[in-house]
Amino acid sequence: RAIAGTILVHKVAGYSAERGSTLATVLREAQYAASHTASIGVALACCHLPQEADSAPRHQAGHAELGMGIHGEPGASTIATQNSADI
Questions:
Q1: Inter-residue contact 65 to 58 (CB < 8 Å)
Q2: What confidence score (pLDDT) does residue 69 get?
Q3: Beta strand 42-43 pairing with 77-80
Q4: Under 8 Å CB-to-CB from 15, ≥6 apart: which residues?
Q5: Looking at the DSSP assignment, which residues form a beta bridge with residue 65?
Q6: For residue 69, what is the enclosing H or E element?
Q7: Phi (first) and psi of residue 11, to 5 degrees
Q8: Which of 10, 48, 59, 71 is catalytic?
Q9: Residues whose CB falls within 8 Å of the CB of residue 19, separated by 6 or more in sequence, listed in order
């Protein structure tokens, strides 16, 4: 679910491949990058797909969802909204 972290893994894999590394080496480098990367998403609202009948918010105003998936999958928890330094 950590969207920001995945781009770094893709960049490492791409760099390794561009240098002519074997697939095994690209995989090893990407796995190393993934195991040393951490990020988390915070969402104030969920996406709403046109075919969904229920577009009611999942959480109340003044709250945010930690770890919500990029397709609207439920996050790990809901917290009271705070400033970005506290989050």
A1: yes
A2: 76
A3: unpaired
A4: none
A5: 43, 78
A6: none
A7: -65, -40
A8: 71
A9: none
Longest dimension (CA), the chain: 51
pLDDT digits (tens, 9 = 90+) for 1-36: 457 788 999 999 999 999 999 999 999 999 999 999
Look up the pTM and report it.
0.57
Q: Among this protein's residues, is 71 annotated catalytic?
A: yes
CB 51 within 8 A of CB 34: no
Tokens 């990367």 correspond to: 37
How far apart CA 26 and CA 31 sit, in angstroms, is: 9
Which residue blocks in 1-87 are alpha helix, DSSP H?
3-18, 23-35
- Find the helix packing angle between 23-35 and 3-18, rounded to 10°: 150
pLDDT tens digit string along 47-70? 766 776 666 667 777 888 888 777
**How buried is residue 24: exposed, middle or buried, by Cβ count under 10 Å (0-12/13-18/19+)?**
exposed
